[in-house]
Amino acid sequence: MKSSGQDSSGHGTGLVDDRRSLGDVGEALAARYLTERGARVLARNWRCLEGELDLVVVEPDGVVVAVEVKTRRGVGFGDPVEAVTSVKQQRLRRLLAQWLRQNPAVAASGLRIDVVGVLIRRGQPIQVRHITGVGA
Q1: Whole-angstrom distance, CA of residue 22 vs CA of residue 131
Q2: First CA to last CA across the chain, in angstroms?
């Protein structure tokens, strides 16, 4: 399986070939989508022993948001945002609290958990769906 996004001649195919690359592309698209709407990315792929936050952003009003990004090539297994269960939402809340403890200089006017679902076909985004305040 090619993971470089290149064909045998070394030229870019524009196709996302493996899950990690698919996720990376989705996270980049989500970050761009959010920044175009005024958010500022504070962290990408922040990890600790309990898990990972795909994105941590701050909204113009000071709300700090943990963003779970789900990227898929189709909806055969459901809409990407449906993959964020209540158990996952609880873990995201714990991770965001831990991220804030490790980043005390960040002053938050509020906290939120969002999900961005990205559908990609033939290497191109066809849908970016942003759900704010999941599990609130």
Answers
A1: 20
A2: 40
In a domain? residue 136: no
Are 20 and 71 a contacting pair, CB within 8 Å? no
Query: Where in the sequence is the domain holding 101, given as residue range(s)?
Result: 19-131
Domains contained in the chain, number: 1
DSSP 20-74: HHHHHHHHHHHHHHHHHTT-EEEEEEEEETTEEEEEEEE-TTSEEEEEEEEEES-
Instruction: Report yes or no on 122 lying in a domain.
Output: yes
pTM: 0.82
Using one digit for the tens of pLDDT, what is the confidence trace for 111-136? 999 999 999 988 788 899 999 998 76
CATH of the domain at 79: 3.40.1350.10
* φ and ψ at residue 104, rounded to 5 degrees: -65, -15
